[in-house]
Amino acid sequence: MALKASPEDQELLLDLQAFDTKLQQLAHRAKSLPEHVSLQQLAAENATLQLLLSEQKGVLEDARIELKRVESDVQVVETRIARDTERLQASSSTKDVAALEQELAALKKRQFDLEEIELTVMERVEEQDAMVGEIADQVATLQGRSADLEAARDASMKVIDAETSNAEANRAAVAAKVPDDLLALYEKQRSRYGAGASMLRGGVSSASGVKLDENEMRVIRTAAPDDVLMCPDSSAILVRTSESGL
Length: 246
Known about the structure:
- By secondary structure, the protein is mainly α.
- It has two domains: 7-27 and 179-240, no CATH class; 33-175, Helix Hairpins, CATH 1.10.287.1490.
- It has five helices and four strands; from the N terminus they run ααααββαββ.
- It has helices at 7-31, 34-90, 94-175, 180-193, 214-222, and strands spanning 197-201, 204-205, 229-230, 237-240.
- Strands 2-1-4-3 form a four-stranded mixed beta sheet.
- The chain starts with 6 loop residues before the first helix and ends in a 6-residue tail after the last strand.
């Protein structure tokens, strides 16, 4: 048995469809906010920078460890030089003096070489420390930009959420007025075809944007006002109004 519904109840479906279209648009806006793409790009950049920062911190730590080792070696040599100098000043043995002088000469050569290495490593530490600081600054700048974008996104989402809540409340109020069987058919067609109701205006179905041919219009004209008709192109419920051109 064909479904029947009063023209007034059928017209409620147009309001329902308008709210559903609005909700779809709002969902699309929420997904399409430009901040989403920008935040994804910044997140990728941040991940790359964080990895680079971690690697360069490792290089810096290695350089600092090497510097401590060289400084320790320099300290050992300086201690031995001080000890041998004391022994040299206190010794009266020609043989011991000669040996100590030879050892001191070797130790001072070693001290000179180590201090050269120490200077080179110190420069490397300073350069690496500056590099790590530069990368850390870039990370901080990136995180600042991300925070600004998140704030802008959240502000936009707050507006969208408010509009969505309002549309959902209005939709629910309209849906409550629609007879259950008519509402069930609307929901079924909307889930299957994307549109549940279509307004016939001037012989054109709003859901498909297609003008119905004369045979289709003849069938519509002969239908009773409470007959529930389907759009031949969109499969949505075809709602007739004073603007339908019948």
